[in-house]
Amino acid sequence: MTSRQSLNDLLAELPSRDWDLLRPHLRVIELNFGPALIEAGLPVKQVIFPHGGIVATMEILSRGESIETGMIGRGGVVGSGAAFYDVPSPSAAVVRFPGPASAIEAGQFRSLMGISAALRDVVMRDLWTRSVKAEQTAACNAAHSAEQRLCRRLLHSRTLSGSDTMLLSQDLMAQMLGVKRNTISLIAHALQQKGVIRYSRGRMAIIDVDALASRSCECQLADGSIRPLASPRLSLAPRAVPECSIQRSPS
Ligand SMILES: [Zn+2]
């Protein structure tokens, strides 16, 4: 496995010539809980290729409520659309699960998109994939119950994070689904009573993944949610990031 293949799936797909164009402009950052990576309505400062962890895209409503609209892991890229078109980001992006990532300044990314057809191809394919998932989620929100949707999101989070245990408050779960906290409380209690999950003080553990899958809606298939956790690429454990090819952030 080369160093590039251990980073982000999109970066791993680039031909060597295109990777060599991109590599000098990438720096490694740590995605941590805290301020939003991207603020809705503001220009994107950097485009982020997660190596691990999860970044959630959030729609901010006029009353200040925020609803999760998507999750991006090592198979995707954050902020690419707004950076490419040089427009304010329509949505916010926040870290859902910490992990390392490669970041490139938005203007530099835009320049390279004009040079590298391969970079354009992987980025546009990622945008297309997310568009398809957004359509699937719109149908999911309209047709499937809150319990089915929560089970789907937990399975997808498990796949992206590579862990059966997650820091996930009920407020956060309510935000993920766009439902009241009380709704989540009732569902989480029922799932715990049935031995599907274990939940305590904001830490949630999946106990029975098959039972969780059986309670999820069919949309889990679009997420590839039931992948086993055997792949080391999905591990939440800190990974050694190769120093040979990428500048480390000065911070
Ligand atoms: Zn669904």
UniProtKB/TrEMBL annotation:
A GO cellular-component term linked to this record: cytosol
Alphabetical UniProt keywords: DNA-binding, Transcription, Transcription regulation
Superkingdom, taxonomy of origin: Bacteria
Gene3D superfamilies: Jelly Rolls, Winged helix-like DNA-binding domain superfamily/Winged helix DNA-binding domain
GO molecular function: DNA binding; DNA-binding transcription factor activity
A Pfam cross-reference name: HTH_Crp_2
Domain Cyclic nucleotide-binding: 10-130
The protein's name in its UniProt record: Crp/Fnr family transcriptional regulator
Organism: Rhodopseudomonas palustris
